[in-house]
Design goal:
The protein contains 2 helices and 13 strands. By secondary structure, it is mostly beta strands. The chain has a single domain, classed as Sandwich (Jelly Rolls). The strands form 3 sheets. It has a 6-stranded antiparallel beta sheet, with no helix packed on it. It has a 5-stranded antiparallel beta sheet with strand order 9-8-11-6-13, with no helix packed on it. Strands 3-4 form a two-stranded antiparallel sheet. The termini are far apart.
């Protein structure tokens, strides 16, 4: 697998290296030693699956507050998403900047999201499934987020706001970000 740096400090797109033959292919999707060599959190405390029935579904922008902040490795196992992250680490050189990447079942990419980032995605096709590897387990009461359309970040989502989004009430009502 190749780690490709994003414009946000500590966040990486991972590209698989396929070993193909007549049976199909084999690829490593996670390598703790490689993560550690790049200073990334390689712990896996929990794995989650997100199933999304409709194109246009938006989930995010989520994070867990300290001391329960978690790193995430996210991958599409079926379908396609526009995946977005925001650096919310106050001392970071990329604080308040966002990055987005398309993840699909065919493009062999995943995204490493460092602790201290908000994460969310919008599905591009029906019946999309995402697999999350989390460095810290879910802690009720530690979950938080910023609004998907907060002007402090101005994320360029692929579908317009009136484009038939499916979203939780919680995600739609996060307050404006205050630094």
């Amino acid at each position: 697998m190749n780690l490709v740096a994003t414009p946000l400090a500590g966040a990486f797109v991972l590209e698989l290296r396929r070993l193909e033959d007549e049976r199909g292919f084999f690829a490593r999707t996670f390598d703790a030693e490689l993560f550690e060599q790049h200073g990334l959190d390689a712990r896996v405390a929990q794995c989650n699956l997100s199933v999304n029935r409709h194109a246009g579904t938006l989930r995010g922008m989520h994070f867990q507050t300290a001391p329960h902040a978690e790193a995430k490795l996210v991958r599409v196992v079926r379908g396609a998403v526009f995946d977005a992250i925001i650096d919310l680490r106050p001392g970071s050189d990329t604080f308040r900047r966002w990055f987005g990447v398309e993840l699909t079942e065919d493009n062999d990419r995943s995204l490493f999201v460092p602790a201290g980032f908000a994460h969310g995605f919008q599905t591009l096709v029906d019946d999309t499934e995402m697999l999350y590897q989390m460095s810290y387990p879910f802690v009720p009461g530690a979950g938080s987020g910023v609004r998907w359309d907060d002007p402090a970040f101005d994320i360029a989502w692929p579908q317009p706001p009136a484009g038939g989004r499916v979203m939780s009430e919680r995600d739609a009502q996060y307050p404006d970000f205050v630094a």
